[in-house]
């Protein structure tokens, strides 16, 4: 097994992070702050936020039942995705492996960071094979990306296959659980201690209803979290976001209610879709959206746009020919969509 030092880019391993004013003084007893060149007026927006989000991580650790040193918070999960490339992948030398189709940002970040991105096609049921991914990896593969439930296919990946991959890979596995709140499958969070090479991604953007505040979570060993934390922008999570997230953590019951409502609405919406003449195949979903193969995705997509209804056209994505991805909305929104599709000729 490679050590974390062997997996990390040498310049990053050596890096001593920028130390901000708020890093050097982080007590709470002082009342006069003349260290950060802030404007003393315009409270409360005049002060820099806590660069390590200590209070927020402490509250989050209670809900997630994992200690704060296992938690990284970023400007959306997208920040964590970019940071794992910058921390572990030497441009033009290292590569990553990922399932295909999946969330587009893994490939975008690979291209931005000039890192080779190797895709391994899922099978016709959107299942992956750990052996195929491992065969595609070589000594320069630093990361393997998995997403479960997967976007845009909507299905959970098989747990035993994920475990096989984590155990068999001589590098870091990034498992994106953005939609895990909607799934019956338990999160891998409780197994984090067992897998030092696992990085889990979750987000406030979906079940938590907070896409606007841009807050993503990564969970990993304290050593991996330490590396991500030292290369992030010092104040990557702004004060308004930290405040709003704290409020959401105190209203966790509401999130659980939303999830229940959305799962019931998804089932009803799927039943309606199954009866539509334009539906060719409905794919089973463990998320707050589902993929559906229709008779003519491009025309139906354009027809819906004309009706003021936007779904996601996935027609040009691997294995998703003539497929639309439909997010579950309110009862009213779902009804408007179904009524429009009933009228489609
Ligand atoms: C929506 C989504 C995210 C969330 O990204 P944020 O930057 O946290 O909003 C992450 N991964 C997947 C697969 C997604 O679909």
TrEMBL record:
<comment type="pathway">
    <text>Amino-acid biosynthesis; L-histidine biosynthesis; L-histidine from 5-phospho-alpha-D-ribose 1-diphosphate: step 7/9.</text>
</comment>
<keyword id="KW-0368">Histidine biosynthesis</keyword>
<dbReference type="InterPro" id="IPR001917">
    <property type="entry name" value="Aminotrans_II_pyridoxalP_BS"/>
</dbReference>
<keyword id="KW-0032">Aminotransferase</keyword>
<keyword id="KW-0663">Pyridoxal phosphate</keyword>
<protein>
    <recommendedName>
        <fullName>Histidinol-phosphate aminotransferase</fullName>
        <ecNumber>2.6.1.9</ecNumber>
    </recommendedName>
</protein>
<dbReference type="Pfam" id="PF00155">
    <property type="entry name" value="Aminotran_1_2"/>
</dbReference>
<feature type="domain" description="Aminotransferase class I/classII large">
    <location>
        <begin position="44"/>
        <end position="341"/>
    </location>
</feature>
<dbReference type="GO" id="GO:0004400">
    <property type="term" value="F:histidinol-phosphate transaminase activity"/>
</dbReference>
<dbReference type="GO" id="GO:0030170">
    <property type="term" value="F:pyridoxal phosphate binding"/>
</dbReference>
<dbReference type="InterPro" id="IPR015421">
    <property type="entry name" value="PyrdxlP-dep_Trfase_major"/>
</dbReference>
<feature type="modified residue" description="N6-(pyridoxal phosphate)lysine">
    <location>
        <position position="206"/>
    </location>
</feature>
<keyword id="KW-0808">Transferase</keyword>
<dbReference type="InterPro" id="IPR005861">
    <property type="entry name" value="HisP_aminotrans"/>
</dbReference>
<dbReference type="GO" id="GO:0000105">
    <property type="term" value="P:L-histidine biosynthetic process"/>
</dbReference>
<dbReference type="InterPro" id="IPR015424">
    <property type="entry name" value="PyrdxlP-dep_Trfase"/>
</dbReference>
<keyword id="KW-0028">Amino-acid biosynthesis</keyword>
<comment type="subunit">
    <text>Homodimer.</text>
</comment>
<comment type="similarity">
    <text>Belongs to the class-II pyridoxal-phosphate-dependent aminotransferase family. Histidinol-phosphate aminotransferase subfamily.</text>
</comment>
<comment type="pathway">
    <text>Lipid metabolism.</text>
</comment>
<dbReference type="InterPro" id="IPR015422">
    <property type="entry name" value="PyrdxlP-dep_Trfase_small"/>
</dbReference>
<dbReference type="InterPro" id="IPR004839">
    <property type="entry name" value="Aminotransferase_I/II_large"/>
</dbReference>
């Amino acid at each position: 097994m490679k050590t974390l030092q062997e997996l990390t880019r040498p310049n990053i391993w050596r890096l001593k992070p920028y130390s901000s004013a708020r890093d050097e003084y982080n007590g709470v007893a002082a009342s006069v702050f003349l260290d950060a060149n802030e404007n003393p007026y315009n409270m409360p927006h005049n002060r820099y936020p806590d660069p390590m989000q200590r209070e927020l991580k402490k509250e989050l650790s209670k809900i997630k039942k994992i200690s704060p040193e296992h938690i990284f918070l970023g400007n959306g999960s997208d920040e964590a995705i970019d940071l794992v490339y910058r921390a572990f992948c030497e441009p033009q030398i290292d590569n990553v492996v990922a399932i295909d189709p999946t969330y587009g940002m893994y490939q975008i970040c690979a291209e931005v960071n000039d890192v080779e991105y190797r895709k391994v096609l899922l099978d016709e049921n959107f299942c992956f094979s750990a052996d195929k991914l491992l065969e595609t990896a070589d000594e320069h593969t630093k990361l393997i990306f998995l997403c479960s439930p997967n976007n845009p296919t909507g299905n959970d990946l098989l747990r035993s296959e994920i475990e096989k991959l984590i155990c068999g890979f001589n590098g870091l596995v990034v498992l994106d659980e953005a939609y895990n709140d909607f799934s019956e499958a338990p999160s891998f969070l409780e197994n984090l201690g067992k897998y030092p090479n696992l990085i889990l991604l979750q987000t406030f953007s979906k079940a938590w209803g907070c896409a606007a505040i841009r807050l993503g979570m990564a969970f990993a060993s304290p050593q991996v979290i330490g590396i991500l934390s030292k290369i992030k922008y010092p104040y990557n999570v702004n004060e308004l976001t930290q405040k709003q997230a704290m409020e959401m953590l105190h209203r966790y019951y509401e999130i659980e209610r939303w999830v229940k409502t959305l799962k019931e609405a998804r089932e009803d919406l799927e039943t309606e879709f199954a009866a539509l003449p334009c539906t060719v195949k409905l794919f089973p979903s463990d998320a707050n959206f589902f993929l559906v193969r229709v008779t003519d995705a491009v025309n139906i997509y354009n027809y819906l746009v004309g009706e003021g209804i936007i779904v996601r056209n996935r027609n040009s994505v691997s294995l998703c020919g003539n497929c639309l991805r439909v997010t579950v909305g309110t009862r009213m929104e779902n009804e408007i969509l179904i009524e429009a599709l009933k009228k489609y000729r």
